[in-house]
Amino acid sequence: MAARTSDIQAAAKDAATRVGDAGATIAEKAVEVKQTLAATGQDLVGRAGSAKDATVEAAGAVAGRAGALAHDVAEQLPRTSQEWEALGTSVRDRIRANPAPWAIGAGLVVAVWLLGRRSSR
């Protein structure tokens, strides 16, 4: 019986050693996972920062382009009464040269206006 008790004690010590080793291995793996997650989080933060910078840069470019476009349109608008008269004469001459598209467009505008008035009642 004494031999059997020593076998059981040896087996228990062996099991305790294995459980301790397994616990240490799990702890090491947990530390590795923690470090990997931290590195991934830092990488994501870096990527988010660069994406934000790219978005801000793109928004600045769009704002600059919009400002340039508004400036170009403002330069093309007539400023004096003579320029407005010349523009009116030009439009009148274009209508007289080819009245069909202008009449169709005016008819569509009137039809939409009438439909809008009826639907509001």
Describe the structure.
With 121 residues, the protein is an all-alpha fold. Helix content is 93%, strand content 0%. It has 3 helices and no strands. The chain is rod-shaped. The model has no long low-confidence stretch (mean pLDDT 86).
Summarize the structure.
The chain is an all-alpha fold.
Instruction: Count all strands and give the number.
Output: 0
Strand proportion, as a percent range, falls in under 5%
Outline the low-pLDDT stretches. none
Give the helix proportion (percent range): over 70%
Shape: rod-shaped
H-E order: HHH
Q: Largest sheet at a glance?
A: none
- N- to C-terminal distance: 106 Å
Structural class of the secondary structure composition? mainly alpha
Number of helices: 3
Mean pLDDT: 86
How large, in whole angstroms, is the Cα Rg?
41 Å
Short key terms for the protein model shown above:
single chain, mainly alpha
